[in-house]
Amino acid sequence: MSALAVMLLVPTAAAIALALAPGGVFAALINVGASLATLAASLVVLADRPAPTELWLIDDLNAYLIVLTAFVMTTTAVFSGGYMGHEVAAGRLSAGALRTYHALYQALNAAMLLAMAANNVGLLWVAIEAATLITVIMVSLYRTREAIEAAWKYFILASVGIALALFGTVLVYLAAQPVIGGGLEAMAWTVLQARAAGFSPAVLDLAFVFLLVGYGTKVGLAPVHAWLPDAHAEGPTPMSAVLSGLLLNVALYALLRFKMVLAGSRAAGTPGPLMIGLGLVSLLFAGLMLYRRRDLKRFFAYSSIEHMGIMTFAFGIGGGLANFAGLFHMAAHSLAKSSIFFAVGGISQVKGTREIAALSGLTASHPALGWGLVLAVVAIAGAPPFGLFTSEFLIVSSSFAHAPALTAVFMLGLLVGFAALVLRVQHIAFGAATPSHAGTAHQATTVVPLYTHVGLVLIAGLWLPAPLAGWFAAIARLLG
Amino acid sequence: MRPGLAALDYDVAHLSGALVLLAAFGLIYQRRLPGMINLFALQSAALGSAAAWQAWVQDASQLYVTAAIVWSLKAGAVPLGLHWLIHRLQTTRAVETVIGIGPTMLAAVALVALAIVLVTPIGADRSALTREELALALSVILLGLLIMITRRHAVSQVIGFMCIENGVTLAVVGVKGMPLVVEMSVAFSVMVACILFGIFFFHIRERFDTLDLHFLESFRGEDR
């Protein structure tokens, strides 16, 4: 059996096993073990890349995202072990709900990896649809009024988005069919990219608009983002970490693939301006909305919209440097944002609240968590020496040559978001300490993944190994 | 294509496609939930016929499977399930719309015009059939969106969503040689989605004592 098959089958099998087996401590261990095995398999896939087949494709672009996904799923599984155990112990979740959660966690792992390893636009769509349905159930896990409302909103908006994306996919097939002929061939990324020059540009234009609105809903771009803050706030925190860090990336990956198809056709000029526009709107809107947030998880959910806007803007600008920066930003944001949610999860458990106003002086009362949050927020705000500074700096410098006026707007958006983050974290981390929830100490399962991620983002900002940089540059050229 | 039947091909394909669109207009006009469900069943039946006709015209046997799935699931199981649900939940039968039926109808006509304008550039290198099928499909999708926007009841929102799905399926059917695997998996995910919708109705009902979703307008999470 190939490593690719192992990578996809391990989480699938684990999901089934976790759904059938009784819960308890072992479920959390199985969850971590299965994620680790998947990570190991993904590393083998990366090292020994299989040749593309009719259904599967591993190339530079998705190999890096697959490893990133498997890695963050593993660290989040460690965090989730402690966090969800505490939720059950505190009586907020039933043992049955925990069992559902663990099974869904691995199912989500399988769905995201399937979406990225697929060499077929239809299979990609089905995998993203599956991931959406899985996360809808996860959001509704707490069964409170707010959780049900958030899950319904997510369900409806994401379903409509996904349906529009399917229409866009059908249109791409319609464009490909006269050139390639029918069948699975006309849905394979490899074939679509190679023969895009002959596709009708009018059909591709229309297709991309639907794909952008459809998958853009899943990315969380501004006019169609409404589900994102609620879903992040009401779902279990490990799911928020995975949703922000990974699932948004998967949807963006789908858009990038379609952009690559268009880049080789006569409709190459279409995606750029559209992506720049949506990216800027998301960045500015989310930056302003950050100031009005009172709930800590909602606050960082808006920050995710902001960062997805930054990436979309970078890919919209295009060209080697901006694409490089966009890809680098995807990885750095994944790591930084999930580490923030680890910290937020830990904080909400030791303090018993997520109200920003009720949180203060964390560095004094809980140094490990408090300083971890400070570091992660400094990283996400794009301050040096962290990796996100590097990518944002590259985006600004590459877009300045392309469109100085847009760059000014972009920088304004960055500053607005930066100020909001600094303002809030200053209040939460420093000042007089608020009382803690009795009987809860922070857990090693929170702190270790938190500092691991922050450390990686720091290393990425200080020193990017030459082979890795060369590799990013190679993908950037692929993107066109 | 079978010889001698070219004109008939067009007419029947248009007829079934137009029936799907007509049913979408009916959904916009209809206020009562049982009526909406029946219209949705009618729309799905017309869609199934469109698939079966294309299967015969294109000699594509996999489209018969699509037709069978549409007839049994969307025209059969889903409407029956929805009827059972509204009976079981004893929900209100008449649905309030956000804006009146008249303006909504005007908006619907404008959307159909928009759909036709959007697909006009296509077709220089393509048969007229595909282009018109595409215009019909896009119209149905846009009308489905309109239904979702203008209805407040959870069940009617779901019907709007499935109207969008029907529009997408109409497009799939009109394009030659779309692989069956994709349609099967799409049908499967729609089925899972429907089951989830059903479960959610019970949860929403349990938490809010209503399926009228006006509460979502006031819900901004923290800004209550």
Please provide a written account of the structure.
The complex is a heterodimer of chains A (480) and B (224). Chain A is 78% helix and 0% strand. By secondary structure, chain A is an all-alpha fold. Chain A has a domain at 270-480. The longest helix of chain A is centred in the middle third of the chain and has 36 residues, at 145-180. Chain A is globular. Chain A starts with a helix and ends with a helix. The model of chain A has no long low-confidence stretch (mean pLDDT 89). With 224 residues, chain B is mainly alpha-helical. Chain B has one domain (6-218). Chain B has eight helices and no strands. Chain B has helices at residues 6-29, 33-58, 62-89, 101-119, 128-150, 154-174, 180-208, 215-218. In chain B, helix 1 packs antiparallel against helix 2, helix 1 runs antiparallel to helix 6 and helix 2 runs antiparallel to helix 3 (62-89). The radius of gyration of chain B is 18 Å and the shape is globular. Chain B starts with 5 loop residues before the first helix and ends in a 6-residue tail after the last helix. Chains A and B meet through helix 5, helix 6, helix 8 and helix 9 of A and helix 5, helix 6 and helix 7 of B.
- For the termini of chain A, the CA-CA separation is 35 Å
What's the number of structural domains of chain B? 1
Q: Which band does the percent of strand residues of chain B land in? A: under 5%
Query: Helix and strand succession of chain A?
Result: HHHHHHHHHHHHHHHHHHH
Query: How many helices of chain B?
Result: 8
Give the proportion of residues in helices of chain B: over 70%
The quaternary structure here is heterodimer
Largest sheet of chain B, if any? none
Uncertain segments of chain B: none
Molecular shape of chain A: globular
Q: Order of helices and strands of chain B, N to C? A: HHHHHHHH
Tally of helical segments of chain A: 19
Mean pLDDT of chain B: 80
In terms of per-residue confidence, which ranges of chain A show pLDDT below 50 for 5 or more consecutive residues? none
Beta content of chain A comes to under 5%
Rounded to an integer in angstroms, the radius of gyration calculated over CA atoms of chain A is: 21 Å
Overall pLDDT confidence of chain A? 89
- Total strand count of chain A, please? 0
